[in-house]
Amino acid sequence: MAADTRDLIAGALIAMTGGLIAAQAGLSYDLGTLRRMGPGMFPFGLGLLMVCLGVVIAGTAFFRVGDPVRMQARTPLAVLAAVAVFAVLIQPFGLLPALVGV
């Protein structure tokens, strides 16, 4: 039985992003206590929530059969090109010309 690879990849990416957010908040900000919360408590909690949701999404993907993932090479290249064009145009020309250039 094959797993739903789209949900498996999406859940893993959500869990990984949440883990990075929680780690950054836990290491960089004061968490405080539950009675006196610090500035890192909210992003830390949201990061942990993202990890839990990502694990649930990825875990339920094992019990479904999904369509195979077909990715064309031009899709990620177009996204990367748009980000690069925006990054090059934003400083010298400003926001509106950079948005039009994308």
Q: How is this structure best described in words?
A:
This protein is mainly α and 102 residues long. It is built from four helices and no strands. It has helices spanning 5-28, 41-61, 74-93, 95-101. The chain starts with a helix and ends with a helix. 10% of the residues are buried.
List low-confidence stretches. Answer: none
What count of helical segments does DSSP give? 4
Rg = 19 Å
Residues in β-strands, percent:
under 5%
- Give the helix/strand class: mainly alpha
Largest sheet at a glance?
none
What general outline do the C-alpha atoms trace?
flat
The termini sit apart by 42 Å
Please bin the fraction of helical residues: over 70%
What is the tally of beta strands? 0
The average pLDDT value, as a whole number, equals 91
Q: What is the string of SSEs from the N terminus onward? A: HHHH
